[in-house]
Amino acid sequence: MAATEILLLRHGQSEGNEGGRFGGHGPTRLTALGRAQAEATARALAGAGLTAIYTSDLVRALETAEPVVRATGIVAKRTAGLRERSVGVFTGLSFSEAEERYPEAFAALMRRDGTACPPEGETHADCLARAVPVIDEIVERFPHGRTLVVSHALTIYLVLMHITGADASRVFIRTDNCAIHRLKRNDAGLWTIHGLNDISHLAGV
Questions:
Q1: How far apart are CA 132 and CA 162, in angstroms?
Q2: Is residue 157 part of a domain?
């Protein structure tokens, strides 16, 4: 049965990742390692037969998508819908700084409480409400294509929870930098998971 395939790709290592700081909607860029991860990912995807590329409009995602765009000649669609969950006033802070300044809000975040909302930030539901329409658009526009979606760890996790219907209180799906999750949806609406957190293309990076 014909299917649409979606590859969920997390951005490469960012300066925020390296420094143990909250990225959120901030302008943290890729590190040298992150750029090498993005280049390795582009080499792996160059002949993958991609139909379309969608990417978060945050700089670390754009810098990750750019080598794939060069390798495939596909113009990426940038969208705020694929941004990471906003962490509001935590943006740019180290974990210890956030805990010291906002102990209650930090504790709620560390408990993975989906209803927690850092001051001026977003809940899980807020983030998901942005991301799901992008996935729906891809399914509608490219029903038998292969689309690369460049996004962020929590956003990708929430999309996976939404698609699978898994209980977030019992299941956590890890997403490393430049890891790929591979999913297919057939014409009957059934999603099949073909791979999770694949980093085989990063060997030697």
A1: 8
A2: yes
Residues 52, 148 contacting (CB under 8 angstroms): yes
For the chain, the domain total comes to: 1
Q: Categorize the per-residue pLDDT at 66 as very low, low, confident or very high, splitting at 50, 70 and 90.
A: very high
What is the domain range of residue 170?
Answer: 3-87+122-202
Identify the pLDDT of residue 2: 73
**Contact 177/13 with Cβ under 8 angstroms?**
yes
Domain contains 108: no
| Residues belonging to the active site | 11, 84
Which of 80, 87, 82, 83 has the alpha carbon at shortest distance from 120?
A: 87
Reported pTM: 0.97
120 token code pair? 């001026």
